[in-house]
Design a protein that fits this description.
This protein is mainly α. About 70% of the residues lie in helices and about 0% in strands. It has a single domain (about 85-320), classed as MetI-like (MetI-like fold), CATH 1.10.3720.10. It is built from 14 helices and two strands, in the order ααββαααααααααααα. A hairpin with a 7-residue loop joins strand 1 (about 60) and strand 2. Belongs to the binding-protein-dependent transport system permease family.
Length: about 325
């Protein structure tokens, strides 16, 4: 009897599922595809097509008036010889190496402190989160005036303490660290994510670690960090991508600090002040595309930026798997 059932099952498997089951599965797939169609259409129109178009235009030269002309690898060869690209890439990598870790450590440390507060925790959480609600342009304007070398309240306070304040945004040495301070001031968006992750760590794990003799440092290393590792990865990946696209704060700070706050096409003349210290890669891409009108070369710069962002994200995801 068993052998007979096995032979029938084998014949059914070899013949595939019955026609009624195949039709039901096909209808289910069509229903799923119909629900996903708007998202897939949006991805094709707003991601895949612009990406493929950028790759094509990176091999052309055009200015939005004349038709694109194929120039082969000329834009790519020029990119390797462009000194502005090296300067902008160096500044951007400096910000990625300093600003991203500083924001993550600042937000994580603030979250750890706020997670320990029992009284007035809501007030402190609100106060630390509020700067993140300020628009980037307004926050940068306020920050530059606070750190104004001659009349800013920060240098005035330092002078009262007997310390001569630096030139901040007007100094080639201090301009990028000043942008880091601006980034640290607005860590509320990251802090609130870390705080939610820290409050979600099971208390039983801390109690078990304490019974085993683990101190606060070991509890943080072996209990807290593994539990918030996905949030750390999210903060790192999004922080790197945002810093690779660092534009608004650098442009506004340079414009205001130079004393030539203009709008429209003239603003690009102040990019990088002082002495190119705040000249980031997206700023050079903007100058090439919208000041010089070299949109083919601008597409080359954009494709390189996209490839770098994808490569860094892939490396971080791979390293995170080995860490987890």
């Amino acid at each position: 009897m068993t052998a007979l059932l096995e032979r029938r099952a084998g014949r059914a498997t070899a013949a595939g599922p019955p026609p009624g089951l195949r039709q039901r599965r096909r209808r289910e797939r069509l229903v799923v595809l119909s629900f996903m169609a708007p998202v897939l259409l949006g991805l094709v129109v707003f991601l895949v097509y612009p990406l493929l178009a950028s790759v094509y235009f990176s091999f052309t030269t055009f200015d939005l008036i004349n038709a694109p002309q194929w120039v082969g690898l000329r834009n790519w060869r020029h990119l390797l010889e462009d000194p502005n690209v090296r300067k902008a890439a160096t500044n951007t990598l400096w910000l990625v190496a300093v600003l991203v870790p500083a924001r993550i450590l600042g937000a994580l440390g603030t979250g750890v402190l706020l997670a320990r507060f029992k009284r007035g925790s809501g007030l402190y959480r609100t106060l630390f989160y509020l700067p993140a609600l300020a628009p980037p342009v307004a926050a940068t304007l306020a920050f530059v005036f606070l750190f104004k070398p001659g009349t800013g309240p920060v240098n005035t306070l330092l002078a009262d303490l007997g310390v001569q304040g630096p030139l901040w945004f007007n100094s080639p040495t201090w301009a990028k660290p000043s942008l880091v301070l601006l980034g640290l001031w607005g860590i509320g968006d990251l802090m609130i994510i870390f705080l939610a992750a820290l409050l979600d760590v099971p208390k039983e794990q801390y109690e078990a670690a304490s019974l085993d003799g683990a101190g606060p440092a070991h509890q943080f290393r072996y209990v807290t960090l593994p539990n918030i590792a996905p949030v750390l990865l999210f903060a790192t990946v999004t922080g790197v991508i945002q810093t690779l696209q660092y534009f608004t704060q650098a442009a506004v700070a340079a414009s205001v600090a130079s004393g030539a706050a203009t709008t429209g096409g003239g603003i690009s003349s102040t990019f990088g002040y002082p002495e190119g210290s705040t000249f980031t890669y997206p700023l050079w891409l903007y100058v090439v595309g919208f000041r010089y009108g070299a949109l083919g070369y601008a597409n080359t710069l954009a494709v390189v930026l996209f490839v770098v962002a994808i490569a860094v994200t892939a490396v971080l995801l791979r390293r995170f798997r080995s860490f987890a």
